[in-house]
Amino acid sequence: MKIKANLISGRTADQGAHLEAKTHKGYFDACAYCELNSADLERLGASEGNSLKVTTEFGEVVVFAKANDGNPDGLAFIPMGPWANAVLSPDTHGCGMPGFKGVPAEIEVTDEKPLEMKALMKKYMED
Prior knowledge:
Layout: E1 2-10, H1 13-17, H2 25-31, E2 33-36, H3 38-44, E3 51-56, E4 59-67, E5 75-79, H4 82-85, E6 103-109, H5 117-126
Parallel strand pairs: 1-5, 2-4
Antiparallel strand pairs: 1-6, 3-4, 3-6
């Protein structure tokens, strides 16, 4: 089963605390997830920690599921970082920063595992 979602990204305190060590597990744990509310996770048949594939017109990425009941139905959040960058528009509209809000996405459960930073970067280079 797939759900459609409005994907957004932004900084989190945990993501910011690990910026200086992007190849370490702490940064991976702080960034390689997608928050959905419990109702959306249930519609997917997913639980926290399951792998989710997030697909947009810009690409796809596998991340872990995380519940956040502060999100309204249909809103997905991935912290800023390489996992979010895989599915967000690279267009900076001349300001040097891509758009981080309002990207239509499809989300589904997958058996794939999220790639760690170095493997994710290697995949970017190959695509």
